[in-house]
Amino acid sequence: MYLSKITIENFRCFGEGVNRLELPFRPGLTALVGENEAGKTAVIDALRFALGTSDQEWYRLEDADFHKDETTREIRIVCKFESLSAPDQRAFVEYLTYGEGGKGQPVLYVNWTAKDTGEAFRGRPYRRVEMHSGKEGDGPGLVPEVRELLRATYLRPLRDADQALAAGRGSRLSQVLYHTDQVKTAGVRYDPRVDIDQLNVLGIGDLANALLEKQKGIVDAREKIDEHLKGLSLGGDVIGSKIKVSGATASDDVRLRQLLEKLDLILSGPGKLGLGSNNLLFMACELLLLAQEDEGNKLLLIEEPEAHLHTQRQLRVMRTLQEQAAEKGIQIIVTTHSPNLASAITLDHMVMIRKRRCFSLAKGQTQLEPSDYRFLERFLDVTKANLFFACGVMIVEGDAESILLPTLARLLGRDFTKHGVSIVNVGGVGLRRYARIFQRKDAQKDGILDIPVACVTDMDVMPDCAPLILGKLKEGDEWPETDRRRWRAKRDIGNETALDAHRGVKTAKASGQSVKTFVSDKWTLEYALALGPEAKDGGFPLGLAEDVYVAANLADHDDAINAGNIQAAEVVTTAADQFAALKREAVAEDGCAAEEVLATKVYARFAKDGVSKPVAAQYLAERLTSKYGKGEITAEGLRARLPRYLTQAIDYVTGSERNVSNGEVSSDE
């Protein structure tokens, strides 16, 4: 059997009616991911209240557990279990729900309710807790023996594995071992004629008792006690003594528990091992117990399994948990804030919790195609998995964008870190695949996953003067047919109306729901930065052409600068002089305005001379930051010089956009 669905009403952050949570689960492992305060821990705690846990810990309801926005002071948690095995059906036979006419596979519903009666008991608020079966909670109440079968195993965050596996009354290790078949079945009871290596646990206890009773020192002490008794006896009323081991006559069940409570479980290895290793031992111990259960709830709840584990062990743990869940029929529900773990979890088994709503990423729930799942399984690594925990996501196609855009956002007063924005570099491929993670198959039913996602991509249409400037054509050459070249120019597309339509097609490919695509106004990032927004009142626009050109020259001399063979200031001075000359010489040609010619010659440092775009982006980010610190540029001034598609994308993911319509953005700043 496995937990297929939980419904939570009036519990903590979850309300009732349309504000309740309905969270489906699948067999195997399910990972709950999302930002803080989204409701992940509330889901785990709801399961702990409704089902109980194998450590027998008792949980007290607090006033804060009741949803504050509802007048109804009644918590309702419904757990639905499906795929019951034959032993499960026998164990829960009185509580099963069948389809109409008694047909279909039986289902087990567990309805847990807690009502605040307003009364008090011994100075504390009294809350009436009930557990009933049936889809509507109208079935028989669950007796203690049945509740025992429903208990889940729970590993709390920042758990103390040392304490949990230490010897002591009711220790967790003794509970695990007590329910392990091998402990009860392996070996025989004590008999003087049996080799001691054949004894079972109780047999070892019997042997220890016998040895204690016959130990010479103990026997001598008893005899001395008897001698004193003779002196204290009257006449022929002689009494003697006998030393017995305490508890030796108790039932086998009690004695077995007492023996197991004497055991510690520790790691073997040099010296004292750390918290991470002990937590692995704790997980292994719990998996041992769950793997051999043949009836009841084989459910393991783990909050933040990454606790105390370094990166490689996190990956190994998650892969092992998924394998164990599949091979042993164990159901595992984990919560995590770790991109390392998220990158190792199959996307099909992940659920995003966002603003107290759940969004399964399973096949059929998103707009991802089957091939997308395969693609993301290969390429969704730890550097990209931070998208599952973000308040906003910026998806870009290159290293230059991922380096530069966070700096631009910070200088514009829209710091990505402050606003919880993750930037995901997909390396030029799969932009739409990543975007579809956030798009629901049935948005009307599920609602929209309202994480703003901005896809930033290039127009990839060069001005008509560029082929000659970049050396793709020679003076007087005929233009090759489009199917014989990989580049496109404005004349291949048509007039401005055709270009707008071309941009619209690119924009529509990934856009939808909370995902918006922002296409460069012209050609590529570096060209658009150099050109800036459209010129006003004639003349050159106020772009970043000089800054981009200087950054490109610094990148070209990066090795020499780092080796100390040349000073960065010297490169800057030379580059500024070269740019001034380029600007003076720029004139309209081949249907391009003078500013387009200048921007193309700036971009030629990358496209023709092979300067590294990421290195130049780093220098440009440093240069703009320095200028901002010196007061040479302001946030408003920088915004006026940046391409609109970049400022629109930054505004959108940081939540300042109010409406995007016809290219206009309203900001809250």
Description:
The chain is of the alpha/beta class and about 675 residues long. About 40% of the residues lie in helices and about 15% in strands. Strands 1, 2, 4, 5, 6 and 7 form a 6-stranded antiparallel β-sheet that branches. Strands 8-9-10-3-11-12 form a 6-stranded mixed β-sheet, sandwiched between helices. A 4-stranded parallel β-sheet has the order 14-13-15-16, with helices on both faces. Strand 11 and strand 12 form a beta hairpin. It is elongated and about 135 Å long.
Concise synopsis of the structure shown:
This protein is α/β, with parallel strands linked by helices and 669 residues long.
Short key terms for the protein model shown above:
single chain; 669 residues; 6-stranded mixed β-sheet; alpha/beta; disordered C terminus
Secondary structure layout plus pairing:
Layout (H helix, E strand, L loop, with lengths): L1 E8 L11 E4 L4 E5 L6 H12 L22 E9 L3 H6 L4 E2 L9 E15 L2 E9 L11 H7 L2 E3 L5 H4 L7 H7 L2 H5 L15 H14 L1 H17 L19 H9 L14 H17 L7 E5 L7 H18 L2 E5 L3 H6 L5 E5 L2 E4 L9 H10 L12 E5 L2 H13 L9 E5 L5 H5 L7 H4 L6 E5 L8 H4 L20 H4 L2 H15 L4 E5 L5 H7 L13 H12 L1 H6 L4 H18 L8 H14 L5 H17 L5 H7 L2 H10 L6 E2 L2 E2 L4
Parallel strand pairs: 3-10, 3-11, 8-9, 9-10, 13-14, 13-15, 15-16
Antiparallel strand pairs: 1-2, 1-4, 4-6, 5-6, 6-7, 11-12, 17-18
Helix pairs in contact: 5-9, 14-25, 20-21, 20-24, 21-23, 21-24, 21-25
